[in-house]
Design goal:
41% helix, 75 residues, globular, mainly alpha
Length: 75
């Protein structure tokens, strides 16, 4: 989901092999930075509130502790 949101690959040589997770995750919580994180091909056709909600879901999915991530199945 992070790749979909950003339009970036998980690892990029141009970023000195830094992982997308480490580079983008802190920015998911910053409303001002979020607009810069989003894939430019996605800009415009969605309501901003939807973007914020999607970023919140992405942030939950990349939590370091498994118990804080949403379940992959319906209970």
């Amino acid at each position: 989901m992070l790749e979909i949101l950003t339009g970036r690959k998980p690892f990029e040589r141009s970023r000195s092999e830094q992982s997308l997770f480490r580079w983008e995750t802190p920015q998911l919580h910053d409303i001002d930075a979020l607009d810069d994180v989003v894939d430019s091909s996605l800009k415009g056709p969605y309501p901003p509130k939807s973007l914020l909600r999607f970023a919140d879901v992405v942030a939950l999915c990349v939590q370091s502790e498994p118990e804080f991530r949403p379940p992959m199945y319906r209970r």
